């Protein structure tokens, strides 16, 4: 019963999120513009509520930016022009994928560097492990003395059993 | 060195992470530098609040001024207002940008609380705000005599902010203007 109730609450929460996400609607003169509007509004970050894009945020500034985006698209601006316009006013911060530059290099390069570092560590670890326990290496030869000891032990166990 | 050093790797990683997190505690992610620092104040021609005339960039530029973005719906602006009076009394010219507000409400506000502004630019649609990169009120811009934005403070200007941040810049800029 409680599982069912939890599932119901969960489903309602999911639906509620979608209902909130619907904000104002704009009539576009052609469907291609509407597609670009969706892409750009998902890519632009709301300056006020910083973990949301302008498509999801209902802060006044996000509403203004959506309106502006709509107007610029209808005026025939290219994606590049619109992004430049936004960046000139709000900084690279306003883009979820900032341009590569000195200030954003650490953002773009850190994942690659960490991946490379991980590969190097994995390679070194595997190599040192193979060096210490190599299953293909031949067993060391026993000296005559050791051979005799081994035979004695084997004989002993045979006698016991 | 080899195996013994490896024992310290988790500790080193922990210390590095802790230093980053410690630094993160002091940083305010909402404090963004304005994209307009060292750029000219955008052009505008907008109505002047309570006056039957337009006010434009040329009216504001010419001396070091503060440009204060405010609105009657902004609670922090009410907190900030008394301090703006004190700055105005000390002779700091402050221009207001009445941001996305109602003229009648704004005039009533100035009537009740007093008017520290040289003039108020009526930005009903938020167009100037957009060009300035305003994302909330109050915001205060320090504009030099040549019309270049030198600093933007987001949030309430109080004695502490003025003494530590704005005044040093203001003094530096005004001295420069006298020398020229």
What distinguishing features does this structure have?
heterodimer; A: mainly alpha; 65% helix; elongated; B: 180 residues; alpha/beta; Glutaredoxin; two-stranded antiparallel sheet; 46% helix
CATH topology heading of the domain at 25-117 in chain A: Helicase, Ruva Protein, domain 3
Low-pLDDT stretches of chain A are none
CATH architecture call of the domain at 25-117 in chain A: Orthogonal Bundle
CATH topology of chain B: Glutaredoxin
Explain what this protein looks like in three dimensions.
The complex is a heterodimer of chains A (161) and B (180). By secondary structure, chain A is an all-alpha fold. Chain A has a domain at 25-117: Orthogonal Bundle (Helicase, Ruva Protein, domain 3), CATH 1.10.8.640. Chain A has 6 helices and no strands. The mean pLDDT of chain A is 84. By secondary structure, chain B is α/β, with parallel strands linked by helices. Chain B has a single domain (34-179), classed as Glutaredoxin (3-Layer(aba) Sandwich). Chain B is built from 6 helices and 7 strands; from the N terminus they run αββαβαβαβαββα. In chain B, the strands form 2 sheets. A 5-stranded mixed sheet of chain B has the order 5-4-3-6-7. In chain B, strands 1-2 form a two-stranded antiparallel ribbon. In chain B, strand 1 (45-47) and strand 2 form a beta hairpin. Chain B is elongated, with a radius of gyration of 21 Å. The model of chain B has no long low-confidence stretch (mean pLDDT 90). The A-B interface holds A 47-48, 50, 60-61, 64, 68, 87-91, 93 and B 29-30, 32-36, 100, 126, 130-136.
């Amino acid at each position: 019963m409680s599982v069912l109730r939890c599932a119901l609450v969960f489903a309602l929460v999911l639906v509620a999120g979608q209902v909130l996400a619907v904000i104002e609607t704009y009539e576009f003169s052609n469907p291609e513009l509407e597609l670009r509007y969706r892409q750009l509004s998902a890519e632009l970050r709301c300056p006020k509520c910083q973990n949301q894009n302008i498509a999801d945020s209902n802060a006044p500034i996000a509403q203004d930016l959506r309106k502006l985006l709509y107007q610029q698209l209808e005026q025939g601006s290219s994606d590049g022009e619109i992004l430049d316009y936004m960046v000139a006013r709000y900084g690279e911060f306003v883009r979820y994928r900032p341009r590569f530059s000195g200030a954003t290099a650490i953002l773009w390069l850190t994942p690659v560097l960490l991946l490379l570092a991980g590969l190097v560590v994995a390679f070194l670890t595997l190599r040192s492990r193979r060096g210490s326990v190599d299953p293909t290496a031949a067993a060391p030869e026993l000296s005559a003395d050791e051979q005799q000891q081994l035979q004695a032990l084997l004989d002993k166990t045979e006698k016991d059993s | 060195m080899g195996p013994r050093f490896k024992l310290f790797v988790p500790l080193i990683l922990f210390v590095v992470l802790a230093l980053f997190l410690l630094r993160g505690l002091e940083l305010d992610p909402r404090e963004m530098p304005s994209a307009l620092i060292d750029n000219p104040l955008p052009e505008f021609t907008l109505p002047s609040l309570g006056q039957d005339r337009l006010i434009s960039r040329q009216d504001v530029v010419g001396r070091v001024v503060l440009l204060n973005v405010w609105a009657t719906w902004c609670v922090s602006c009410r907190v900030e207002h008394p301090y703006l009076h004190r700055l105005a009394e000390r002779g700091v010219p402050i221009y207001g940008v009445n941001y996305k507000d109602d003229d009648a409400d704004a005039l009533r506000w100035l009537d009740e609380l007093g008017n520290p502004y040289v003039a108020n630019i009526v930005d009903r649609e938020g167009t100037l705000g957009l060009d300035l990169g305003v994302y909330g009120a109050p915001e205060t811009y320090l504009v030099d005599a040549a019309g270049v934005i030198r600093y933007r403070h987001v949030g309430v200007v109080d004695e502490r902010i003025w003494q530590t941040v704005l005044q040093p810049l203001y003094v530096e800029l005004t001295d420069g203007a006298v020398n020229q």
